[in-house]
Amino acid sequence: MMETMDKPFEIDDIECAYIGNYSSDLFETQGHTAPIVADWLGMTPIPITRIENACASSGSALREGAMAIASGMYDIVLVGGMEKMTNLPTEGVTDVLASAADGLYEVPAGLTFPGIFGAIAKAHMDRYETNLDHLLKVGIKNHNNGALNPKAQFNVTIQDMMDRRKARAEQRGQPVPDWQTELDFLHDEQANPWIAWPLRLYDCAPITDGASCILLVSSEIAHNFTDRPVSLAGIGQASGKPLHDADELTSLSAAKEASRQAYEMAGITADDVDVAEVHDCFTIAEIVATEDLGFFVPGEGPRAVDEGRTALDGDRPINTSGGLKSKGHPVGASGVGQVVEIYHQLRGEAGERQAKKSKVEVGLTHNVGGTGGTCVVNVLRME
Amino acid sequence: MMETMDKPFEIDDIECAYIGNYSSDLFETQGHTAPIVADWLGMTPIPITRIENACASSGSALREGAMAIASGMYDIVLVGGMEKMTNLPTEGVTDVLASAADGLYEVPAGLTFPGIFGAIAKAHMDRYETNLDHLLKVGIKNHNNGALNPKAQFNVTIQDMMDRRKARAEQRGQPVPDWQTELDFLHDEQANPWIAWPLRLYDCAPITDGASCILLVSSEIAHNFTDRPVSLAGIGQASGKPLHDADELTSLSAAKEASRQAYEMAGITADDVDVAEVHDCFTIAEIVATEDLGFFVPGEGPRAVDEGRTALDGDRPINTSGGLKSKGHPVGASGVGQVVEIYHQLRGEAGERQAKKSKVEVGLTHNVGGTGGTCVVNVLRME
Predict the structure, then answer these.
(1) Domain Thiolase N-terminal spans what residues (chains A, B) (predicted)?
(2) Is residue A98 within 8 Å of A212, Cβ to Cβ?
C-alpha cells in the first residue's frame, strides 16, 4: 500500500498494530510473532497483537484495528497479515492446515482441506446442476486475472500453461498433446491430476509465502494521508459450526451472517456491490461464496461463471486480483490482501485488471477461516 | 466468575467473544480454536477471535474486548483464556514455551525461559543487593496465599510441603532432614534442585492446564448484571524488544510503558494501587514487576519482600491468589485469571486470602508475554 499512498507518513506515526497469522507456531516453530514484527520494523513500544482465526486471521485483524479506532483510543493503526508456509514439504503444509479443522471430529476421520472442499463440491453438484466444468472455469477466470497482476504467485493464464506444455513436448520430440481448449487441458488427468474428487490440482489455491498490510486511519484525518481515501463502510464477522456439525454443506452459515452484518452497517444490499474479492481457497469455494453473499441465488453461482458474469468484463467481477487461486494464499495474509485489491479497484488504479464496468464504487471482501468456523466480510466504499 | 454474578444472564446475551491462547497449535495440534469454543458453548454465530501474545494472550484479549465495547459495536463481550499444556512431557513444554522467545537470536543460543529469567535474576543480583533468599521468599509468600485459594494448582504452603517430606521420611524409616525453616528446605539441593542458576525448582511457576473467563459489559448496563460492578479504569499494552536486544536486563521496558498508559487512563499513580496480581512466572519476575510498576524504586523490590510489604497483611499485597507460582500458569489463561482475582479482592469476597488492609479499592494486573515482548497492565476500580 505504501506505493500508492499519496502523502508520506512516518513509522512513528503508527499508534497500534495487528498482525494476522495462522500458525507460525507449526510452520516455523515461532510463536509470539507480533512483538518480533514490531522490533524488526522499529515500532516498539506501540501495542501490537497477533490475531488467529485460521485463514481469516488478517480479516479478523482488520476488524480489531477498525474497532480500536472506533473506540477512540487510536487514530492510526497498521493492520497486516503474514504466513511463511514453504518451510515444510507439501504433506506437512496439508497437515498444518488440517489443524484448522476440528481435531476431535474431522481430522481423525482423515479429512484434510482438499477433502473438505471436495465434499462441499460433491454436495453442490448433487443439489444443483453444478458440474466439473463450472469448477474449472473459476480457475481459468482467476488465472486470467492473476496474469494481469504483477504480484500474483502464478501470474500466468491456464492457456499460457497449456501452450508452454505443448511447446516443451515439441522441443523434446515427445508426442504433443492434442488439447484444443483450456478445458481439454484441465480435464487431462496427467496435466491436472485429481486431488480430492471432484477437485483437481488446478481447483486448489497454491502454498504461498506472503504478507499484506494496510494503514487504517480515522476518517477525520484520512485526508492527511491521501486525497482519495477509501472508507471501510461495513464490517461483519461471524462464527459457524464446524463442517461435521453444520446444517448443510452447500453454504457456509458464517458467511451469510457476516455479510448480513456488513451490509447492514454499510446500509447496502448485495446488489450494490460492484466488485468483490472472495475466499477461493478452492474453485468451489468461490461459487459457494457468491451465493452466500447474495450475489446469486443458491445454485445460480455456476451459471454466473458460465455466462462470464464474474469475469473482469462481467457485471459482477469476482477476484480481479487473481484470487487466492492465482495470486496465492499465504493464509494469514489473505484477508488483508483482499482489501488491498479492492482499495486499488475503487481508486481505479488496478491497471490492466481494473474491472471494466462503468461504476466501481462499492467493493467487498469475503475471508473464510477453517471449514467456515470464521467468516469476515468487509464493505469498502470510495468516498 | 459465574458463581459471583449477582444476577443471571443467558449465553445468548453475549454479543462477541475473545479467547487468549498461546499455542494450542504446538500443545494440541489444534489451531483455529476460537470457533470450536463457540460451537461447544453454543455461542455461534457470534464473532469470536483468538488472540495470541504468548503468556499475555488473555491480557491482550481483554483489551480487545474493552475496545470492542468502547467502539460502540457491542455491549456484552465474553473474554477468556485457555491453555492445555500437560499433553506434552516437561521438555516438550519447555520447547513450546521457548518458541515465544526469538527463534533467530535467542532459542538457537540455547535459551529457554528458565535460562532467560535466570539471566535476569543474575543481573538483578549483580546490580542491586538481591540474593537467593529474596527469590525464595517470593515463592514462600505466594504459596502462603495459594494455600488459601481453593482453585490453586498447588494450594499448599512451602511449610506444609517441608513437613510432609519430613513425615514421609519418618514413616519410611529414612533419615529425617533437619530443615528448621522453609529457607532451610528451599536451600536443600535434593529438595529444591537448581533449574537455571540462580533459579531453583520452587522459583518456577508450574506447568498447568486451565482456563479463565470474565464478562465485560458497558458501564451503562453493568447494574443489570450485578449490584457491585468492578470497572476497568485503565488499560495499557506495550511491545518491547526481545531480551537479546533489550537496553537492560533488570527491567522490562514494555511493563513500564504499559503501566504508564494504564495509570494515565485511570488518572492514578502507582501509589494509588491497593492490591496487584503480577506476572510471577519466576520469583525474580515478581520482584522486577513491582519495580517496573513503580511500587518500589529499582533495587528496593527485594527488600519489600523481606519486610513483608507484599504479603497479605502488608501495605502492598501482591499475588493474593498465589500468583502464577502457586495458583498455576496455564499461559494463555493467566492474564484474565489475574483479573478474576482482583475482581474478588475489590468486592471484598476473597475470603481467607482477602488483603488485610482497610482500603482495597484500586487493583492492578500485570501480564507479560515472552521475554517482555508484550506487557498488558489493567487498572480496576470498585465503583
Answers:
(1) 10-219
(2) no
